[in-house]
Amino acid sequence: MAFVTALGKRSGALSRSFAHRQLPPVCGDVGHAASAWVGRRWLRARQRVHAPWMERCRRAQLHPQPSCRQLQASTAANTDGMLQQRTPNVWQQRVARAAALMRRLAALSVPFWTEPDVRRSAWLWTLGTLLLAFATTLYAVSLSFVQRFFWNALNAKDVPKYRNFLLVYVSALVLGPPLLTLFEWVKQRTVLLWRRFLTERLLGGYFADKRYYEIGNRIAMGSLGGGGGGAGTAAATPLTLDNVDQRISEDIRSFTDKAMGFGCTAVVAFFDLLLFSVILYRIQSQLFYILVVYATLGTSITLWIGRDLVRRNTQQLRLEADFRYSLVRVRENAESIAFYSGEEQEKAEVIRRFRGAYDNMLGLLGLQRNVQFATTWYRFLIQVVPAVVVSERYFSGQIPLGALSQAFFSYNHVLNDLSLVVHEFVNLSAFAAAVNRLHDFQSALGEPVIPSKAAGGGGDDGAAAGSRILVRIGAATMPSANDVLVLDKLSVYTPNGRRLLVNQLDLLISNGMRVLVAGESGIGKSSTIRAIAGLWKRGSGAVYRRASPEHTLFISQRPYLALGTLRQNLFYPRHGHDLQHVSDETVREVLRKVNLPDLLDRLGGLDVECDFAAILSLGEQQRLAFARLLLQPKRIELAILDESTSGLDVDNERRMYRLLKEMNVTVLSVGNRPTLLQHHERVCRLMRDGTWRVEDPDQALDYVLGQAG
Ligand SMILES: Nc1ncnc2c1ncn2[C@@H]1O[C@H](COP(=O)(O)OP(=O)(O)OP(=O)(O)O)[C@@H](O)[C@H]1O
């Protein structure tokens, strides 16, 4: 009793000393040894609580220091209490993780069978797959009986019976392959339908509400490589997503493929287990019990050995995608890298990412090896059991040869069915990783665009940083009939809410007017345009735009050139068959107006596909963007130009602005070039502290000349 009390006191003291990271004096007696053991257990338990907490703080960018210090302080104050409150039992944690995984799996899978568009085909194909799965099981059972009677006839030297069963046996062998092939085809067809549904569904969410932009912004803000939250993602934390492209292309493919594969395997195993258990039980009941105990033990040991596989697999998927992305970046920026001669740095970065994937793969391989040791032993060791148990009955004449062969056959089936988790464990772990990544992606598509204040981090002004800019589009919403664009007390923050760029900007642009936004680099000119376009929503105030999106054109400094033909690029974002109805002559005329008269001949026609971003100069790309203005089906009322003539000479710049004037397009430009002043009637200057000033071009001349150096 005294020993127990001493041990209790000592472990409490030790725990506290561990909390302060001081190791205890060397333990010289049993009490010391036991208490050291308690201390070590405590350290591990604390690590389990503390490390995920730190990780969550880091991911959420939630100022980790104070919160984590608070945690440490409370840990030191009441260590034992903490242990009880904070550390759920290991098994509870595992069960919770498994339950979370099942919920994620359901959230990803159920819509395939419930969404009105697809559910009929989904059910038809799934039922077809299940029926065929059942048929293959029945086939295996029938085959076992045919074999049994065949061997019995052989053993009894009953020639007529033997010949009959030989015929039945051959017929069964002929029927088997078409049945198995049909099953595989129907299964793969269902997988493909599911993949199409899930891909289109997630793409729908990705492109809706300009989510791709917001998610891309999050990645650019430094969450690249942070990885999806995985099983432990905090619900209140905005999810960080790496490599969306991989999630949409690779993860969906592997998820649907594996989910259907495992689903079918489980269904087949279930039927198989039912039927062959009965057969086996009737031949030799002990064999059945031995198998149940053996499979339970084997599954538990495999789960324990491979407990880290899901995390490693999730990491591997992310690291592989990061590695691939670094190579894509090199391909896309080959020219700039070549100019800089930046090969060494690029190579080092690509190799660094590859090494990350390599190192993780090493660990993964080690884990897989350990799991494989266990599963192979598991498979091999049990093979001798039926030989020992059933052969005695055969030798004593209690069962015929056919029953012996059927016992072996059924035994192997039941063993395989009960060992599903053991056999598929490595694949199941990879599958769980894909489920986690896809679920994170699906959840991110459903998150609010502006995260809650608690999750997003504070700005200069918490209230404004947490609120949204109101963007209203349509003539009916305009304060006055002649206005095209009105900014009403517009305040714009950076997406993380940390910096106020523009404070309470009031601007009124009426029909046909041209206004230039100027200001030093990094002040927030482009950000103001992003807010007007509705891309950046953090801030306050309102934007009123008379022109609907079809009547508005945004041109950036480096215009976007899409994959596809020159025709598709000239009409972008318009697409579809009606592009063919615009004659080549009309296009040539437009190209002449933007001073690209020979472009068609140079490139070989409108329907030539090539990488236009790589072969056209910046100035040509900018003129091509102005050509779009003339080729849109609806008249462009408002053009928003972000340094979109920066690559042009003065003559070409004048030509572009003349075109806009002839078409009576209202213009909001961004830029600091002095030559721009002559094309605008008003200048809105943004200042460093967020203030602004609207003035005549003459008044702004000195400032703009100063900016131009
Ligand atoms: N996604 C983002 N998240 C956080 N800050 C951003 C983001 N994008 C831009 N910023 C910051 O916002 C500020 C304003 O950027 P903006 O692009 O509007 O500047 P600008 O006035 O157009 O500059 P320039 O004339 O050099 O193009 C910059 O300091 C920039 O670093």
UniProtKB/TrEMBL annotation:
CDD domains: ABCD_peroxisomal_ALDP (cd03223). Gene3D superfamilies: ABC transporter type 1, transmembrane domain (1.20.1560.10), P-loop containing nucleotide triphosphate hydrolases (3.40.50.300). GO terms for cellular component: membrane. One of its GO terms (molecular function) is ABC-type transporter activity. Keywords: ATP-binding, Membrane, Nucleotide-binding, Transmembrane, Transmembrane helix, Transport. PROSITE patterns: ABC_TM1F, ABC_TRANSPORTER_1, ABC_TRANSPORTER_2. The chain crosses the membrane at residues 122-146, 166-186, 259-281, 287-306. The keyword Transmembrane applies. The keyword Membrane applies. Residues 485-708 form the ABC transporter domain. Residues 127-430 form the ABC transmembrane type-1 domain. PANTHER family: ATP-BINDING CASSETTE, SUB-FAMILY D MEMBER, LYSOSOMAL COBALAMIN TRANSPORTER ABCD4. This is Probable ATP-dependent transporter ycf16. It comes from Cyanidium caldarium.
